Amino acid sequence: MFLHGIEAHGHHGVFEAAQREGQRFVVDVDWWFDAITATMSDRLVDTICYQRLYEDVVAEIGGERWNLIESLAEQLSTRLLELFPTILALRVVVHKPDAPIGGTFSDVGVAIQRCRPG
After folding, report:
1. Which of 26, 45, 64, 114 is the most exposed place for a label (fewest CB within 10 A)?
2. 12 is catalytic
3. CA torsion through residues 105, 94, 14, 59, sign
């Protein structure tokens, strides 16, 4: 499953302006889990609720401040694995579309993939 393009305001970055004023971040999450129970039952309780996942990602973006988007991506990965025990693996991409780069660019970000231990 996946949920892409989650937008939220956060105060992540090494520069004082980013820490003080904050900026927009966009997050994509792909996750893998055994969906057989959900496909057989057709019940929300047997799958990953993407509304809850969305809310958790937005809360993390707006929560603790990180200097590096790498650290934000790691925190998101760790938190989602904690909150959703049926996720076997995930990929989190953090985009920083308004990064203070002195030039034209279409995107900058980091992708982190994590698997549940064991």
Report:
1. 45
2. no
3. positive
d(CA 103, CA 93): 22
Structural domains of the chain, ranges and CATH numbers in brackets = 2-115 (3.30.1130.10)
pTM beyond 0.85, yes or no: yes
Running along the chain, 118 residues long, what does each successive block of 10 average in pLDDT? 98 87 96 94 94 98 96 98 96 96 94 91
Apex CA 104: angle with CA 109 and CA 73, to 5°? 10
Q: Which amino acid is at 2?
A: F
Which listed residue (20, 96, 101, 105) is catalytic? 96
